[in-house]
Design brief:
Elements (H helix, E strand, L loop, with lengths): L6 H12 L3 H13 L8 H20 L19 E6 L5 H8 L17 E7 L2 E7 L14 H9 L3 E7 L4 H14 L2 E4 L5 E5 L5 E10 L2 H10 L5 E10 H10 L2 E10 L8 H11 L3 E3 L8 H11 L2 E8 L2 E2 L4 E4 L4 H8 L1 H5 L3 E5 L8 E3 L9 E6 L2
Parallel strand pairs: 1-3, 1-4, 4-9, 5-9, 7-8, 9-10, 11-16
Antiparallel strand pairs: 2-3, 6-8, 11-12, 11-13, 14-15, 14-16
The protein binds guanosine-5'-triphosphate and magnesium ion.
Length: 384
């Protein structure tokens, strides 16, 4: 197991994590890789670390020349979640953004129209979800663009990745290349959200949030993360996970992201559409066919975005008055966790809750803190 890494390798990995600049990171990572022994149990980790190294080198190359203005390449998260549109140039990312949000991006036939990330807000029923168009990662000849790795870096931090394909321009090649590029930056597309999500922070120590069951303790997690130089992070456990799952996230640095494929321009003559569907199925990610020109598939797309995020809406009520907006939480959230999200003291003083909706057999049923909520439940929490 990775835990048996030599102390030297762990120390180098720690140095890598603490490194601030690209140059420092590259140096520390090269050193770490050189002192990890090659055998069956380290194979996967080494592969990941080497990919990360390649990515850092590429990012260094792609940085604007000294003296040139560094373009702003980040978008502040807003709404219940962030979805990114990732794809080749001219695949219709701006057209999609305009169709499902109120944004008004430039849409044009010529390639590389969008040169910085553009956010918009999608309203799905009563939930606001941020949609961000990322600058194209492939040219019309399906070569890597100069902005590719900055877009991929943003995709790594999103909650959901929508891969947008142009059905009229070798969509199978587009999908293959984009999946490979994502893998290069340590992102694996998945239908389901992974068991462990590790969000590194600048302060606040190590925090553990469990939406399910964790076979381990906060102290175990701290020891493990300190060992690889992570001092501040929020570790989210979804479903059932062990300490080894946390370790895999911490060491491999690969993240599993929910994703799906949008096969756009379905009104045009398309080839490879069956192959694309097969590949998506093999990867285990959903696919939706869309034509923005004909306005087809857009409602299904919106629903898929919401469903793929794995979120539920919970309405709260106090003294018989229902709050106007729902609280949006990961599916699997319990009444106790909801109380904690509302207010720490509400969780500490928790006596019981009354629930109406799909998660209960009897409407207005009294439940305890462990009760798991469902989409659109109404909850009233009683605490002294
Ligand atoms: N036939 C057809 N054309 C479309 C569709 N969606 C977008 N287009 C056209 O494709 C071209 C490119 O659309 P954009 O939305 O600008 O594409 P993009 O992915 O944002 O492109 P870049 O920003 O350059 O990377 C435009 O001429 C659109 O009108 C569609 O569903 N069908
Ligand atoms: Mg665009």
């Amino acid at each position: 197991m990775p835990t048996n890494l030599p102390a030297e390798a762990k120390a180098k990995l720690a140095k890598y994590r603490e490194a601030r600049t690209h140059e420092e990171k590259i140096k520390a990572l090269e050193e770490a890789i050189s002192c990890i022994p090659h055998h069956k149990h380290t194979e996967k980790m080494l592969r990941q670390l080497k990919k990360r190294l390649a990515q850092l080198r590429r990012e260094l190359e792609q940085r604007p020349v000294k003296g040139g203005r560094r373009e702003e390449f980040s978008v502040e998260k807003e709404g219940a979640a962030q979805v990114v549109l990732l794809g080749a140039t001219n695949s219709g990312k701006s057209s999609l953004l305009a169709a499902i949000t109120g944004a008004n991006p430039e849409i044009a036939e010529y390639p590389m129209t969008t040169r910085r990330p553009i956010p918009g807000m999608m309203v799905y029923e009563d939930v606001e979800i941020q949609v961000v168009e990322l600058p194209a990662v492939l040219t019309d000849g399906l070569e890597e663009t100069s902005m590719a790795y900055r877009s991929l870096g943003m995709a790594r931090n999103a909650d959901l990745i929508a891969v947008v394909l142009d059905a009229s321009n070798k969509p199978l090649e587009q999908l293959r290349k984009i999946v490979d590029m994502l893998e290069d930056v340590g992102v694996m597309l998945k239908k389901e959200r992974a068991k462990v999500i590790l969000e590194k922070k600048d302060s606040g120590g190590i925090r553990l949030v469990t939406f399910g069951k964790f076979h381990g303790s906060l102290d175990d997690v701290k020891e493990l993360l300190y060992g690889v130089g992570i001092r501040n992070a929020v570790v989210k456990i979804i479903g059932e996970a062990t300490l080894e799952d946390v370790e895999e996230q911490a060491i491999n640095e690969s993240v599993y992201k929910r994703g799906f494929v949008i096969l756009n321009k379905f009104d045009m003559k398309t080839d490879q559409s069956e192959e694309v569907e097969e590949l998506a199925a093999r990867l285990g990610i959903p696919l939706v066919k869309v034509s923005i020109k004909e306005g087809k598939g857009l409602e299904e797309l919106k629903r898929l975005i919401f469903e793929s995020l794995g979120l539920i809406r919970v309405y709260t009520q106090k003294d018989g008055v229902v709050a106007r907006k729902p609280i949006v939480v990961p599916s699997g959230t319990t009444v106790g966790q909801l109380a904690y999200l509302i207010h720490k003291e509400l969780a500490e003083g928790f006596k019981y809750a009354k629930v109406w909706g799909r998660s209960v057999k009897v409407q207005g049923q009294r439940v305890g803190a462990d009760h798991v909520l469902q989409d659109k439940d109404l909850v009233e929490i009683f605490a002294p």
